[in-house]
Design a protein that fits this description.
alpha+beta, 25 helices, binds 2-(butylsulfanyl)adenosine
Length: about 700
């Protein structure tokens, strides 16, 4: 059991190097307990305190920084160009098949080549990015992508930020070790990342694998650190390794500190292999990450060596790939949609087709480059696939069904909405419409963003109402909401076409108008940090807005800051700083901000509102789960205002869970198993109002 120093133990100068070493070791152990064993032994708060202490000491005494310092995981190193390096052992890929018969043939081939009957190990086939990790004397020296199998990209700085990858090994390890596995992005993190990207006007990633691969290639490792990448390591290479079977290699991998596959099964017959495959073909839907098949490996390393490899694949392993549900359907037309930031997304309209239980009528073609790659022609028959992920995608064209003289689908040159000439930014895959103040979907998108829940949260306005206000010329930019008057709104009419083509005129009822105006009025109390997010500066998401607001305290300071000054804020890199400067260099934006300020919207940090209301939750780690009468963000804010700390997952250090409606069953089970109290929203309210102390 590791004991840890508290920040109060001030080391004397002579033992400082040892102290830094111990602190490094302790933090690495806690990191392993949390990210690999899923069994933390200290609270997040205590961990953060220790990490901060180490950071402080490292800053003061950089000569004592350890090569496995956990502060490396925070990132900050910039890789301008990833260097290509040769693999120590070629990085082969697996032969793969979609048929059980071919697995039977693989088994026959293996049996024929061996004297003794083989035992197999079945594993999941992780759908991520393959990685090779090199350790020398137990220290992570290099992390390299597969590349062409002979050489790959050195992504060491980025990989060091992944918390489930050990920077230094535990126990008794060989001097040289290569470990291979997969970097992946769990579903939950993937969805959160895509939500954040949409918030800042970036196109979402198509699937977790693309997101993982894109993240590994980011230039700023501090950005990678925030992406929440994870890994599974499944292969050890080296000399005189301390195990004789693949199955036993995992005990060593674990002992050394690696995160290993979730499921492993020894199989001694084709029937057992078939059962494993069938089980995971359906159960995979319940996993929190993507798999695209299972891998079957000969267990004995000696037998693996006897079998050897072809030029491309080892003969001792094979991948069974799950059939992606795929259909062939004709293309009816291609639409081009314009989003809030002007990015143009091509969407294929398809003849409706049943795929994995749902009817698919449309599929995103993502961007110009993808249309080019697929080389789609009018009326082509397209293959639509649904893998582990929810969004169907076009994976190919059936050339034999192409009509003679069919014309190639071309990307539009002008905005489908406002006819402005589209432009393309250096290094970006898509085109966008630069007419941000007049182009209707961009104007509407900006307004919708402004009123959205995480921004000004004006829920008495919605898409339909915004259409009506736009149609009647009452709003053009967000500041116009604050000039709306009852008499203007009451008379508004809109013609709508019903299901049977009958025409109806609708107008706002008095109650609706009252609600709309009350919602707008209330939004004047929304704190500055959310206003800063609401005004829609490209790349400024919720968190960046918070950090900017806290650092600069008011809008004038932000508007007048230079790029360098902006970059002093944690989270703000070149791209974000550039975008902020550009925003405030645009007259329309400045005018809108001035009008919003005149209307009474908050453009200054209100320090008072951030003062704690009470300390009743002081030092408590709290998890919120489910739906409450207030938004989850408001619930979290409340916890902070009473001195509590929000944590995202339940561990034995969680003090209690506040459960709303529909609390996740897994979370409930975990809380019950660990004996963590679960409070209802009402009980929590009583607690913070100090009418009843539930427990001490
Ligand atoms: S073993 C010598 N095991 O699938 C081949 N690969 O071509 C060693 N993959 O290259 C690979 N899950 O990127 C192995 N449990 C698993 C895997 C796995 C995913 C990937 C890996 C490999 C590709 C197949």
């Amino acid at each position: 059991m590791i004991t840890h120093h508290s920040a109060a133990d001030v080391p004397s100068a002579s033992c400082l190097p040892d102290y830094i070493k111990t602190l490094t070791q302790q933090l690495n152990q806690h990191n392993y307990n949390y990210y690999v064993l899923d069994n933390p032994t200290i609270s997040d708060y205590e961990f953060d305190q220790l990490l901060e202490e180490l950071q402080r000491l490292e800053k003061e005494y950089p000569q004592y920084i350890q090569p496995d310092s956990p502060t490396l995981r925070i990132g900050g190193e910039i890789t301008k160009q990833f260097v290509t390096v040769a693999h120590v052992f070629p990085m082969l890929s697996l032969g793969n098949t979609y048929s059980i018969e071919e697995i039977e043939e693989f088994d026959k081939r293996v049996q024929n080549a061996l004297i003794e009957k083989p035992e197999y190990v079945c594993e999941l086939k992780y759908d991520g990015v393959a990685i090779s990790l090199i350790y020398e004397k137990g220290i992570l020296l290099r992390a390299v992508t597969r590349g062409d199998g002979i050489q790959g990209d050195d992504v060491t700085q980025n990989v060091k930020t992944i918390k489930s990858i050990p920077l230094k090994l535990f126990g008794d390890f060989p001097d040289f070790l290569e470990v291979r596995g997969e970097i992946l992005l769990p579903h939950q993190v993937f969805h959160k990342l895509n939500e954040e990207r949409e918030d800042i006007g970036e196109p979402p990633f198509a699937n977790p694998r693309n997101a993982a691969s894109g993240s590994l290639k980011l230039q700023d490792s501090a950005e990678v650190a925030k992406r929440g990448l994870d890994c599974r390591l499944y292969l050890v290479l080296g000399e005189n390794l301390p195990f004789e079977t693949h199955f036993n290699s995992f005990f060593k991998l674990k002992e050394w500190g690696f995160k290993t596959p979730d499921v492993l099964q020894k199989c001694n017959s084709i029937d057992e292999i078939r059962a494993f495959i069938n089980h995971w073909d359906t159960e995979r839907e319940k996993l929190s990450f993507d798999i695209d098949g299972v891998v079957i490996k000969v267990n004995h390393i000696f037998q693996q060596q006897q079998l050897g490899a072809t030029a491309k694949n080892p003969r001792w392993a094979i991948a069974y790939k799950f059939k992606a549900q795929r259909q062939l359907t004709p293309l009816l037309s291609v639409d081009f949609q314009v989003g809030r930031t002007g990015v143009v997304t091509p969407v294929a309209n398809l003849q409706p087709v049943l795929l994995a239980g749902t009817v698919v009528k449309r599929a995103s073609l993502h961007n110009y480059d993808i249309i080019q790659q697929l080389d789609i022609h009018d009326n082509d028959f397209l293959y639509v696939e649904k893998g582990g992920e929810i969004i169907p995608k076009i994976v190919g064209v059936e050339l034999s069904k192409r009509l003679p003289n069919a014309q190639k689908v071309t990307f539009i040159s002008h905005c489908p909405s406002c006819n402005t000439l589209l432009t393309r930014k250096e290094g970006e895959a898509g085109f966008y419409c630069p007419n941000e103040w007049e182009c209707p979907p961009q104007v509407k998108g900006k307004l919708e963003h402004f009123i959205s829940r995480k921004a000004m949260n004006i829920d008495s306005l919605g898409e339909g109402k915004i259409y009506m206000l736009l149609d009647n010329g009452l709003v053009k930019s967000s500041a116009d909401f604050y000039n709306l008057k009852q008499e203007l709104l009451l008379g508004l009419e809109k013609r709508i076409t019903g299901e049977n083509n009958e025409q109806r005129i609708v107008s706002f009822r008095e109650k609706t108008v009252e609600n709309m105006l009350a919602g707008i009025e209330q939004s004047k109390n929304v704190p500055f940090e959310r206003v800063l997010f609401a005004i829609g500066i490209r790349y400024v998401g919720e968190t960046t807005a918070k950090k900017l607001a806290r650092y600069f305290k008011n809008i004038d300071a932000i508007a007048n800051a230079s790029k360098e000054e902006l970059k002093a804020v944690d989270d703000v890199g070149e791209q974000v700083a550039e975008s902020i400067v550009q925003f405030f260099n645009t007259v329309e934006n400045l005018e809108n901000v001035v009008k919003l300020r005149k209307a009474g919207v908050q453009f200054e940090l209100n320090e008072e509102s951030r003062e704690p209301i009470s300390n009743v939750l002081d030092g408590k780690s709290i998890v919120v789960s489910g739906v409450f009468s207030i938004s989850r963000d408001e619930m979290k804010q409340k916890i902070e205002q009473h001195g509590g700390k929000n944590v995202s997952s339940i561990s034995k250090n969680t003090d209690f869970v506040v459960a709303g409606d529909n609390m996740g069953p897994e979370k409930r089970k975990k809380a019950e198993k660990l004996g963590i109290p679960i409070l209802s929203e009402e009980e929590f309210e009583l607690m913070v109002n100090q009418q009843k102390i539930i427990f001490s």
